[in-house]
Write a structure and sequence with these properties.
By secondary structure, the chain is an alpha+beta fold. It has 3 helices and 6 strands. The protein has a 4-stranded mixed β-sheet with strand order 2-4-5-6. β4 and β5 form a beta hairpin. The termini are close together.
């Protein structure tokens, strides 16, 4: 594990997912990152893989005209990633979205 800037990882994942989203007519929303976002201690490749899997599933099971959004929040020593999904996916999967908590700091 290493210090990882979450923003560039999310941007890479979104860029990779855009062709799939375009083919299925699902929009990807780029939400602004917090100005005080700090690197997280993570395996960059695994983090990207997790986000790619969640994003591709949201697109795959999303409805035509729906949206997928990745959102990041910082609270004290934790960075939280949310992948929001539209109402059709919520009904299908019985879920409200994806929430991944990443801790950072001295460990």
């Amino acid at each position: 594990a290493e210090p990882v800037d979450v923003g560039p990882v999310i941007e890479e994942v979104i860029s990779t997912l855009e062709p799939m989203a375009s083919r299925t007519e699902v929009g990807i929303v780029r939400t602004p990152l917090p100005s005080d976002l700090v690197p997280v201690h993570a395996d960059r490749t695994r983090l990207a893989q997790i986000l790619m899997n969640y994003g591709s599933n949201a697109i795959k099971y999303g409805k035509k005209g729906g949206t997928v959004a990745f959102r990041v929040e910082r609270e004290q020593q934790v960075v939280q990633l949310y992948k929001e999904i539209d109402e059709a996916v919520k009904r299908y999967a019985g879920a409200n979205g994806f929430h991944l908590v990443l801790s950072y700091g001295d460990r």
